[in-house]
Amino acid sequence: MIKMKVVLMSISARNKxxxxxxxxxxGTVAANVKVEVEPAVVTAMxxxxxxxxxGLKEGDEVQVVxxxxxxxxxxx
Amino acid sequence: MIKMKVVLMSISARNKxxxxxxxxxxGTVAANVKVEVEPAVVTAMxxxxxxxxxGLKEGDEVQVVxxxxxxxxxxx
Amino acid sequence: MIKMKVVLMSISARNKxxxxxxxxxxGTVAANVKVEVEPAVVTAMxxxxxxxxxGLKEGDEVQVVxxxxxxxxxxx
Amino acid sequence: MIKMKVVLMSISARNKxxxxxxxxxxGTVAANVKVEVEPAVVTAMxxxxxxxxxGLKEGDEVQVVxxxxxxxxxxx
Amino acid sequence: MIKMKVVLMSISARNKxxxxxxxxxxGTVAANVKVEVEPAVVTAMxxxxxxxxxGLKEGDEVQVVxxxxxxxxxxx
Amino acid sequence: MIKMKVVLMSISARNKxxxxxxxxxxGTVAANVKVEVEPAVVTAMxxxxxxxxxGLKEGDEVQVVxxxxxxxxxxx
Lengths: 76, 76, 76, 76, 76, 76
Fold this sequence. Notes:
Six copies of one chain form a homohexamer. The first copy, chain A, contains one helix and six strands. By secondary structure, chain A is mostly beta strands. In chain A, about 10% of the residues lie in helices and about 55% in strands. Chain A has one helix at about 50-55, and strands at about 10, 15-25, 30-35, 40-45, 60-65, 70-75. Chain A has a domain at about 20-65. The interface of D and F includes residues 13, 16 and 74 of D.
């Protein structure tokens, strides 16, 4: 018999949306990553180090993660 | 003759997504606003003052606005 | 007869201050923009893409926009 | 034969530190959570909703997660 | 003879503006503080704990401090 | 008799941790600074200008400063 326990990690960040990496642009220390989150394209500025550690490249299935305190609302 | 010049305001924030307000929950100074941005629901924590100044209520057509430096990516 | 409806966009961000762009410094993916907001100079780190999309250059009349959750206070 | 593939989720946020929840204080929409990250205590302001979804309570083993763009440095 | 060395603490945050506290509104865990930074009024959402630790009250001379990565620019 | 009054500046940011600069990597406008905050290493992305103004270099004794609203919690 095989017992398995899979513990999924949960993060307090309220906003998590699945998408596909469309473009990775690396600078010296920063990087811009564009993720298609149908029907929008979300842009993330993260460290180049993170891009390399996660091995981010075009076509990757990823999630964009955004803390609720960082979201603004415009109207009109 | 009528001349009109409409100057649209543009903001440097890279991420703007249209949605419909689904829920507004007000605390003493903060507020949580849930916006349906098909197919996701985005949660924003903003000031109660902003909710009142914009008159945010269920059903409103709004945009969620997020600076690129605030977006993270998870993979796997 | 001419009917016009101008709908001004409002954003939940509490802090909006008018100023004049004093300097734009572009890196590979990021950019630093200095805006004179009398009597101070405000520095913004935004994406190079945003600088180009807005066509930001010295002398431009702009607004700096800052979400209330990002503001700290020091005393003493 | 049994094949298993465990894919660990990685997040671009550079700063992840293990700790123990010391205190959870809930407001109407926001919450303050204190996490002992030896030898420091880290304070997080997150949504009350996140506290409830994660079931955060005193004694929980957690990680604090902080994006590199949010970290400042002081000297002197 | 008396020797004194005063080392001023410097913080990497690019934006520091002097002002006078105009209003302090405390919630259960968060607080809104309005600071007159002539000619503008800046709103900060900070923890209630910080308000109490700094003893913030109307009339206090303070500085608002904002990291450059948190500043957006709008034009038009 | 000599009277001295030293007024320490306090900042509302809840999280301040002492550490030693381990690495400074400068890009065109941004910089990554790694600070050993025993037992962790904290990464900060700040402006290159701030690195130069503070004269940050390997071995410096510094503090990392993080606003509570920027801290997330993960569990599991």
